[in-house]
Amino acid sequence: xxxxxxxxxxxxxxxxxxxxxxxxxxxxxxxxxxxxxxxxxxxxxxxxxxxxxxxxxxxxxxxxxxxxxxxxxxxxxxxxxxxxxxxxxxxxxxxxxxxxxxxxxxxxxxxxxxxxxxxxxxxxxxxxxxxxxxxxxxxx
Length: 140
Known about the structure:
Elements: E1 2-7, H1 14-22, E2 32-38, H2 44-48, E3 54-59, H3 65-73, E4 81-85, H4 94-103, H5 125-139
Parallel strand pairs: 1-2, 1-4, 2-3
């Protein structure tokens, strides 16, 4: 199973996201962590060098998230890919539950619900805007 993490200028969450990914309730030998950075101009790529277990695909020119993910999919060797953003922390048991659905051949794709948690130390206008967007997106 590949956990594909999309990132653009995410230096503030690299450590937290890697810790979150390491704590997933999923066999470590079956989990491949792949970061896809798209023209990041901050220290995202530099910080990711501290995590040898993570593959990092870097593109110097920003082409957008969709282009980055499409480029990265060619490097995936596992039959299952879970896509996530760098600033989205995953529930410890979520990946195991998602993979179960694929192993049992009940689904070909799994839409999930995103919940935006207001953080005490990182509350900003962007986070608030993201929360409003996802509340709207979840209703439609």
